[in-house]
Amino acid sequence: MKLDKTSGPGRLVKAPENFIDAAGMRQVVAGRRDFLRRAIVAAGAVGATAALATRAQAATAAAGDPHILDLPAHTRGLGQPVVTDGYGKPSQYEANVQRRQSPGLTQTTQSSVSFAPLQSLFGIVTPSGLHFERHHQGWWDVDPTKHRLMVNGSEPGLLKKPQVFTMDELMRLPSVSRFHFIECGANTGMEWGNVAVPTCQYTHGMLSCSEFTGVPLRMVLDMCGVDLRRARFVLAEGADGASMTRTLPMELVESGEVLLAYGQNGEMLRPESGYPLRLVVPGVQGVSWVKYLRRIEVGDKPYGTKDEVLHYVDLMPDGRHRQYTSTQECKSVITTPSGGQVLLDKGFYSISGLAWSGRGAIKRVDVSVDGGRNWRTARLETPVLSKCLTRFNLDWTWDGKPALVQSRAMDETGYVQPSYRQLREVRGTRSIYHNNAVQTWLVQESGEVKNVQLS
Amino acid sequence: MSSSRSLLAALLLVLAAAVAHAQTTIPYAGIGRAATPAELAAWDIDVRPDFKGLPKGSGSVAQGMEVWEGKCASCHGIFGESNEVFAPLTGGTGKQDMQTGRAARLTDRAFPGRTTMMKLAHLSTLWDYINRAMPWNAPKSLSTSEVYAVTAYLLNLGGVLPESFTLSDRNMAQVQAMLPNRNGLTTEHGLWPGKSMGTDKPDVRAVACMKDCPTSSVVASSLPDFARNAHGNLAEQNRLVGPQRGADTSVAAAAVVSALPVAAAAQVAATTPAPAAKPAVGKPVVDTAAIALTQKYACNACHGMDKKILGPGFQEVAKKYAGRADGVDYLAGKIRAGGTGAWGAVPMPPQTLGAAEAKQIAQWLMDGARK
Predict the structure, then answer these.
(1) What residue ranges do the domains of chain A occupy?
(2) Lowest-pLDDT range, A380-384, B265-269, B346-350?
(3) Band of the pLDDT at A2, cuts 50, 70, 90?
(4) In terms of Cα–Cα distance, which of B256, B247, B237, B266 is closest to A21?
(5) Which of A212, A223, A363, B33 has the fewest CB atoms within 10 Å around its CB?
(6) Residues with Cβ < 8 Å from A342, sequence gap 6 or more?
(7) Does A146 touch chain B (CB under 8 A)?
(8) What percent of chain A has a predicted confidence (pLDDT) above 90?
(9) Residues pairing with A327 in the sheet
(10) The domain B288-340+347-366 belongs to what CATH superfamily?
(11) Which residues of A touch B194 (CB under 8 A)?
């Protein structure tokens, strides 16, 4: 990376945020980016600094950072004991990092969604408490000792032994643990026609990634004597009021990828994520990952459920709805810098984001800062796993001029994430579901980043 | 030496094969048991498009209207047309669509929405969904004949069935053939994993051009300034530390952008003790148990905290009845009995909850419905 020649060793822009006072912050984002250096190097000068700091602060600043010179309480005192909190929580300074609703998107809070704060997350794992939510008729905290899984066939010949399993029994079976992303089919759905929401939390936040632990559904179907020659479809059904149902192809189950999962990131599933049992269907939209899973039925035909006929159907320009659209195609988004954020200064930034594909592993991610005219290949950080989020990074020096920042992912099948223009040419703008277009962020001269779409 | 080694190897191979065999044939002893016929009947309720799983029974349009007005209209409107709680169920289809089996308005971009009737391609879907998930706050409480009746009534509202019709397991297939959008679905796409519905090849093909690529740098769409703060202040939705801050959208974009409120908050937090979980002194105690009850009984499906949804907001109720001496008993009674007229024409259905629970919610309302 080439260093910005204007930045010298005395430049202290990365000072802790509490050191930048309100007026200073305003000046930084207003474009007067040299104010700190002046504040520190030329402390005492009247005018520019007078509004920035009291005389005492300025005097200290001349000697150095008060956060270094004045030892803080936590360096001079006794800290808190163990088990102050039996289940630890994030720092109080992280209170802004929350899952959130998009105002006006849904009319009830029980059939609604909350979005994960992608702009504030690192790596690939979503903390379980920040996992995006989608409930169809409200969530429940189900007693695991009373929860049952039933496995049966749409007719006796398709499955020899209809069985009932307790959680005790499912958890006795040999388990596997795998990292996978889950994305709602409607993620980025508000943006099909035009820009509608400000930040990547709302454009892409119906996306999360966890390590799931559970039993391959294939194993349990084998135990029940499934006839795989005739039973080519699987119905999954939840125990909640909606008793959510979705059809899956048996091919996916045969691959061993589909899990009856009870574990998430080392602990049990969270209630909002289907405690104590949910289906994990890698690569497929979240609605098929049925929560509070109570029943699996194998059949010789698909089921045409409410969420396969009335919702989760993609309206095409010819007026027909695509039914049983399931695969989440290759997609990516830059999470930092991203919409609604303000860059603090010119100079070095690591452009960082997430890429994923429902068809396998990510092969490559390219990043453009000129609206897609020229691209550079980003670094993929490990691990790079199939049907899992992959973190990418690219070094960038911002020169303070407007920049149109984009990422474009490619998966191991060779499929390339399309632009809005390419996607709309085939699917129009009213699909709601399966929008995997390249996202554009406009970094403005003020440093504020804006969600935009190019013509 | 070498012969004993190969003997050992052979033995190991035999052992490994035996273990492998044992592993593939272990039936996971002691795990799972046979489902009883009664258990299967209780849970295996799905109905497929070919009507496999449909229970015998019938219900008339007239019976359906009665059930509808008691249990469905408060959310969906008297004619299934309401857009207040859920998207409209009816509208947007006509006789011509019943001929073609395609809802023509789905290609009309000027038409405002997509109703259930415009999308419905399988009659089984409607029956199955009402049976498993409706009413909203009491799913699976309808009898089989009520499900037939409500399905018939909805199809009557949608102009598909005459008022005199009785829907039954014997005529579902005939009614299916009348649905306005019965031919409106397609599985010709590459988004179903595997080959059981045809192709799994992607429909959109892009290439990864790297240099001097054809593109437009013209911004065609961006968030209008008036919507900048529509999702709340973005400064409060970003971390306080790191390469960026959230933009302060509480002030206009044209004004100087400032992360002041957040930075200031952090400064205060840094110099004061950790915020206690208990409410600050002097702040009224919030009855979170009562709020939980409003969620448990889905009151909040129709009542916002401070705003009308279908019924009045909780705080609006609190304001209206503040000071009324018998307010707690009155409101507890209204919750359980339902009513209409106090807030407009939309009826509130009677709610199934205990007297003590109704009283707790009423008390919370009379205390100002604090959250």
Answers:
(1) 1-73, 112-322, 331-452
(2) B265-269
(3) very low
(4) B266
(5) B33
(6) A29, A446, A447, A448, A449, B244, B245, B246, B247, B257, B259
(7) no
(8) 85
(9) A284
(10) Cytochrome c-like domain (1.10.760.10)
(11) 249-252
Q: Which CATH class is domain A112-322?
A: alpha beta
CA–CA separation, B99 and B93 (whole Å): 11
| ipTM of the complex in this document | 0.87
pLDDT, tens digit (0-9, with 9 covering 90-100), for B122-161: 999 999 999 999 999 999 999 999 999 999 999 999 999 9
**CA angle (A366, A372, A375) in 5-degree steps:** 35
Option in A20, A97, A152 nearest B35 (CB): A152
Contacts of B249 in chain A (CB under 8 A): 198, 340
| B302 vs B347: CA distance, rounded Å | 11
Could you identify the residue written with the tokens 């039925």?
Answer: A297
pLDDT digits (tens, 9 = 90+) for B11-56: 555 555 554 444 455 579 999 999 999 999 999 999 999 999 999 9
The two tokens of residue B272 are 């004061």
Residue B353 vs residue A123, higher pLDDT: A123
Residue A426's pLDDT is: 97
**d(Cα A338, Cα A190) in Å, to the nearest integer?**
17
Neighbours of B323 (CB within 10 A): 7
- Residue B203, chain A, CB below 8 Å: the answer is yes
* Alpha helices per DSSP H over A146-238: 167-172, 200-204, 217-223
Element (H, E) at B189: none
Residue found under tokens 């990864």: B208
Q: Which of B35, B247, B298 sits opposite A340 (nearest CB)?
A: B247
Picking from A451, A345, A325, the residue whose alpha carbon sits closest to that of residue A30 is: A345
Residue B289: strand, helix, or coil:
helix
Q: Is A177 on the interface with B (CB under 8 A)?
A: no
Q: Nearest CA to CA, how far is B74 from chain A (Å)?
A: 14
Q: Is B45 exposed, middle or buried (0-12, 13-18, 19+ CB in 10 A)?
A: middle
The architecture that CATH gives domain A331-452 is: Sandwich (2.60)
- Asked if the Cβ–Cβ distance from B43 to A103 is below 8 Å, we say no
Which CATH class, in words, describes the domain spanning B58-176?
mainly alpha
Q: What is the pLDDT of residues A379-416, one digit of tens each?
A: 999 999 999 999 999 999 999 999 999 999 999 999 99
Strands A163-166 and B33-34, sheet pairing: antiparallel
- Centre a 10 Å sphere on the Cβ of residue B275 and count the other Cβ atoms it contains: 10
What are the structure tokens assigned to A7, written together? 């930045």
- Phi, psi (degrees; rounded to nearest 5) at B292: -60, -35
The full set of domain ranges for chain B reads 58-176, 288-340+347-366
The reported pTM is 0.80
Backbone angles phi, psi at A341, to 5 degrees: -95, 165
Q: Locate A247 and state its tokens.
A: 């059809």
- Partners of A355 in beta bridges: A332, A390
As a whole number of angstroms, the longest Cα–Cα distance in chain A is 90
Nearest CB to A120 within list B208, B221, B239: B239
